[in-house]
Amino acid sequence: MSNSLLINAAELLRRPGSERRFTLEPTIAELGIVDSRFEPDTAVVIDLRLESLTDGIVVDGQLRAPWAGACRRCLAAAVGEVVCDVDELYQHVVTASDAFEIVGDQIDLARMVRENVLLDAPLAPLCRPDCAGLCPTCGIDLNTAACDCVSTVADPRWDALSQLKANLPEQ
Ligand SMILES: [Zn+2]
Ligand SMILES: [Zn+2]
Description:
- The protein is an alpha+beta fold.
- Helices cover 17% and strands 32% of the residues.
- It has 3 helices and 7 strands; from the N terminus they run E-H-E-E-E-E-E-E-H-H.
- A 7-stranded mixed sheet has the order 1-7-6-5-4-3-2.
- A hairpin with a 6-residue loop joins strand 4 (56-70) and strand 5.
- The chain is elongated.
- It starts with 5 loop residues before the first strand and ends with a helix.
- One zinc ion binds at residues 135, 137-138, 140, 147, 149.
């Protein structure tokens, strides 16, 4: 089981101010992501730019990964794509609190990608932004059907009752 995604940065580190762009498409499993929202064999598109500084390497760009889950309102299948813009720092000697470590002359993208993708994945997904959900009383899917439960609130009988109360003489 391989949980690392190593990039050789020796050349970048030799020449501060130089940069390199690349695209990688490892699978969720190769990145060591174990999460029900992501299929293990789905590719994560990693599109990054590496730029060397005197004390590290800036890694910025975009990560994209499709997710799938159950809608929090109606429980139907919900799918989407995590798209996260990243701007991270790798250092030989980690001085910045949120920097990742350069080991040897290699940077390991796996942990950085894992953390960003999981952070951006929806905790409570929706099948669509305006999903009507299930009726809390009878459980019918209000996206495809209607029920009488909701109208109970505006039941004319209650109007009659409140009318009656209003007409009662004060004691
Ligand atoms: Zn829904
Ligand atoms: Zn109902």
